[in-house]
Specification:
Elements: H1 11-23, H2 29-38, H3 47-113, H4 120-134, H5 148-166, E1 173-175, E2 188-192, E3 198-206, H6 210-218, E4 227-237, E5 243-251, E6 260-271, E7 277-283, E8 299-301, E9 303-304, E10 307-313, E11 319-328, H7 339-343, H8 345-368, H9 379-398, E12 405-407, E13 417-421, H10 425-428, H11 433-436, E14 442-454, H12 458-467, H13 475-483, E15 503-511, E16 517-525, E17 540-547, E18 558-565, E19 578-584, H14 601-604, E20 625-637, H15 641-666, H16 668-671, H17 684-701, H18 715-721, E21 726-730, E22 740-743, H19 745-751, H20 763-766, H21 769-785, E23 787-790, E24 793-796, E25 802-805, E26 807-814, E27 820-828, E28 831-832
Parallel strand pairs: 6-8
Antiparallel strand pairs: 1-2, 2-3, 3-11, 4-5, 5-6, 6-7, 7-10, 9-11, 10-11, 12-13, 13-14, 14-20, 15-16, 16-17, 17-18, 18-19, 19-20, 21-22, 21-27, 23-26, 24-25, 25-28, 26-27
Length: 833
């Protein structure tokens, strides 16, 4: 057969080839020859022609997928274009209203300037009375709770007001910074300006049908993390095919310094003439009419102004969603310093409006198979873990009496609140009571505290707490927390200063679409302090949720919540969450950039004479306040309750102190790249080590590390600290991996760490595979000769950023007795890649 000619395949031959293609799209030469032998109908076709058929088939499949992708993108762009055109129309209407209002105000000012001074007050009073008569405040008569017609009237009023906010100009909307529209963006997000209460609005595109979107949005506790419960007390069908529901909703307080809120609302679900679904809600009050809601003294009653969801079907599938959240949270009932939490539209947008859109997009991508998670876990299971961690932490922060929490007496200092729960099955579930509590009986104890932070970006602080656990955690306390998962409980520990003998390894588990939330498993690698502490030598595991670490998200709170788990980590594993939450009180965006080294040494080691550089005066204008809430939960046996309470109180105070030190160190006024060089360590040990490093370099290499200009006591340390190349020291131990013990300013910048956290970094963790091989091959030479030159290479900082260096020199550092003290490394001309 002439292989250069086109071959026309029969339907039977195509069917046989398609069967093979479905099993193996790219068969080998042997497999194609085997196919010809096993399938008689292909015997008259050359192997080369079979190869060409498979190439063409793969090409057609690739083109089909690309065409499908382009069609999907085109549908998204068409829908987004329609959305933008509607938004443009709304903005034009808003401009027209503003022009009209401006002209009216100008006319009023001109007419007011023509009146006499004596009659001005009277004119203002009379005009005000006339305007009040022309525009009387609408009064709604009290509607009967058993009268569906009265409730329908309230629902229709709420629907009209909601639509005027969603697609009209009833509220002066201002677009949030960074929320740019696009086919893959979350949507268009705006916040209110100069309106009663706080409001946020969003519109976006999702690939789910309207009925599915409505079902998800109605399940408020699944996506609104501050929602404690939502109870539908009654449902009334309406004559137009809609449904009116009376709803009672409770929300958590974000901090221990304020009371929780509840809402008594009417929810109206209906279909519009254009096929859109609409779900609107509003509070039922004495002014709106309708039945009165259930009282609850533990909550402050807040008001939901007309809000809701407008869900419109898209051509070709999917939905366009308009979301409006408008609430009055009674900000005057909280301390003045916390009122920004209840008066910020940006915080409302992050907590409710954007959260709803993100949740729908997450489910849409999971449904379409765009997101694949490893470990054999279903996406719904991983979402449930995140929800349980947040809910458990919120329960601990709020400590509701109906969950069984009661206040424990203090020790005279009111900085830490201790609450106990002797019936934790109310919120943990009855299935956990036998596994977590011994036969002696017991419960859960929570130690919590809140504090105000100044000039500390929440995202930066939470990121530091996540990546540098040794800065604040106590390994013995972690071991006690993990003991609740074992049959034999661990003894109540005494907190050790800096007691974190192991290291942590973060194992990613899942993340949301926009990476604003991470679910991960943390393995705490234990190394015993002494032979008596063998129990501390075992590895422990934490399930950890980290959110809000995007420093560009305006108004977003940052949170780090974790709970001990065992090695099996079942889907229904008991969780007792603890953690941190940092909420911004002021949302300023003009502060210094946050891409900086997390350097704790500049605060921990500054000497008595260390003065702040004059250039920091400009940074003091960056005034960002935030409130930090800390809550730690522990199980206890009844006979050890007081011991656990004392340990928990001491531990939380220790954590608060550590967080305060970290917050001072990472504040922009100390960490900005414009704030001048970091102060050098001033301890006698640092002075001695600097002399040993320089002497070792001179003895082994025959050269000088640098020229000392003066013979002052700290001159060598100053020169070493400010040396342009990264100089680091690591331990030399036969039974342990080498860890870093000292670094100069350039070394800390290179590793992106601190002098304290430096001790958690092992040498082999920062070198790449080639660097480790070279170091191993040169190690004997280093120990015999005293030094070695290493070629150019790559390494990784503690933050995971790759960097390169032109050359490295390593030499032995000897103490005064000529014994090996450590190895010194100097990385020359390093830079981030």
């Amino acid at each position: 057969m002439d292989t250069s000619k086109y071959v026309r395949y029969t339907p039977e031959q195509v069917e046989a080839l398609e069967r093979v293609y479905s099993e193996c799209p790219k068969p080998s030469s042997l497999r194609r020859q085997q196919l010809i032998r096993e399938c008689p109908i292909l015997s008259n076709i050359e192997p080369k022609q079979i190869k060409v058929w498979f190439q063409n088939r793969r090409c057609r499949e690739k083109q089909r997928k690309e065409a499908s992708r382009l069609q999907t993108v085109n549908r998204k762009l068409t829908a987004m274009n329609k959305l933008l055109m509607e938004e443009n129309d709304r903005l034009q209407k808003q401009v027209s209203h503003l022009v009209y209002d401006n002209g009216y105000m100008r006319q009023q000012l001109q007419s007011a300037s023509g009146t006499t001074t004596d009659n001005s007050c009277e004119s203002v009073v009379m005009s005000g009375q006339q305007q009040q008569q022309q525009n009387p405040t609408p009064q709604h008569p009290q509607r009967d709770a058993n009268n569906p017609a009265g409730l329908l009237a309230i629902a229709e009023e709420a629907l009209a007001e909601f639509l005027s906010k969603a697609t009209g100009t009833a509220v002066d909307w201002v677009q949030m910074i960074g929320m740019k529209p696009g086919p893959d963006s979350i949507g268009i997000v705006a916040v209110s300006r100069n309106c009663s209460g706080v409001a946020a609005r969003a519109c976006g595109l999702v690939s789910l049908e309207p009925t599915k979107v409505a079902e998800i949005l109605k399940d408020c506790p699944s996506w609104f993390r501050d929602c404690r419960c939502l109870d539908v007390l009654s449902a009334i069908p309406t004559g137009n095919g809609g449904t009116i529901e009376l709803i009672y909703m409770q929300t958590y307080a974000p901090t221990t310094l304020a009371a929780a809120r509840d809402f008594w609302m009417l929810r109206y679900t209906a279909s519009l003439d254009d096929g859109s679904l609409v779900i609107c809600v509003r509070s039922l009050t004495s002014s709106t009419g309708g039945p009165s809601g259930p009282p609850n003294t533990s909550f402050v009653r807040a008001e939901m102004l007309p809000s809701g969801y407008l869900i419109r079907p898209c051509e070709g599938g999917g939905s366009i969603i308009h979301i409006v959240d408008h609430v009055d949270l009674d900000a005057w009932s909280v301390p003045e310093v916390l009122r920004p939490l209840y008066e910020s539209s940006k915080i409302l947008a992050q907590k409710m409006t954007i959260a709803a859109l993100r949740h729908i997009r997450q489910i849409a991508q999971e449904t379409s198979g765009e997101i694949q998670y490893g470990g054999g876990r279903q996406p719904a299971v991983l979402r449930t873990f995140s929800q349980r961690l947040c809910r458990g932490f919120n329960d601990a922060v709020n400590g509701f009496a109906d969950d069984g929490w009661s206040l424990l007496g203090s020790d005279g200092v009111e900085d830490v609140t201790i609450m106990v729960n002797s019936s934790p099955s109310k919120f943990l579930g009855s299935q956990y009571s036998t596994s977590m509590f011994s036969t002696f009986g017991g419960g859960v104890l929570c130690a919590k505290a809140s504090m105000l932070l100044q000039n500390v970006p929440p995202a930066l602080l939470v990121r530091f707490l996540r990546e540098h656990r040794s800065e604040w955690a106590d390994y013995g306390v972690d071991a006690y927390s993990a003991a609740c998962l074992r049959a034999s409980p661990f003894a109540v520990p005494c907190a050790r200063p800096g007691g974190f003998p192991g290291s942590q390894v973060i194992l990613p588990l899942a993340h949301t679409v926009e990476h604003e939330e991470f679910l991960e498993v943390v393995r705490l690698e234990g190394h015993a302090f002494s032979p008596e502490d063998v129990a501390l030598a075992r590895d422990m595991y934490l399930l950890q949720l980290c959110s809000g670490v995007d420093e560009n998200a305006v108004g977003a709170s940052a949170q780090l919540v974790f709970a001990p788990i065992d090695e099996s980590f079942a889907d229904d594993a008991p969780l007792l969450p603890s953690g941190f939450r940092v909420i911004p009180l002021d949302t300023k965006t003009d502060g210094p950039a946050a891409t900086r080294t997390l350097d704790l040494a500049s605060t921990l080691e500054v000497g008595a004479g260390g003065a702040r550089p004059a250039s920091e005066a400009d940074l003091n204008s960056y005034n960002l306040r935030s409130v930090l809430t800390i809550a730690f939960q522990f199980t206890f046996e009844n006979h050890l309750r007081d011991n656990v309470a004392a340990m928990a109180r001491q531990y939380v105070r220790s954590v608060v102190g550590s967080v305060q030190r970290v917050a001072m160190a990472i504040s922009p006024s100390r960490l900005s790249s414009h704030a001048g060089p970091k102060p050098l360590p001033g301890s006698p040990e640092a002075l001695t080590l600097a002399q040993w490093i320089c002497r070792g370099y001179r003895v082994h290499t025959g050269g000088e590390l640098f020229q000392v200009d003066t013979q002052a006591g700290d001159a060598i340390l100053k020169q070493l600290w400010h040396h342009s190349d990264a100089i680091l020291c690591c331990s030399v131990k036969t039974n342990a991996s080498p860890v870093f013990t000292f670094a100069n300013q350039a070394g800390l910048d290179m590793l992106e760490t601190t002098l304290v956290a430096l001790q958690d970094i092992m040498l082999d963790k920062i070198l790449d595979e080639a660097g480790r091989k070279i170091l191993c091959s040169e190690f004997s030479k280093i120990m015999q000769q005293g030094f070695a030159y290493l070629p150019a290479g790559m390494c990784v900082s503690s933050m995971g950023r790759p960097l390169s260096y032109e050359q490295a020199i390593t030499w032995k550092v000897l103490d005064d007795d000529d014994s090996n003290h450590c190895l010194a490394f100097m990385f020359i001309n390093w830079s981030f890649v």
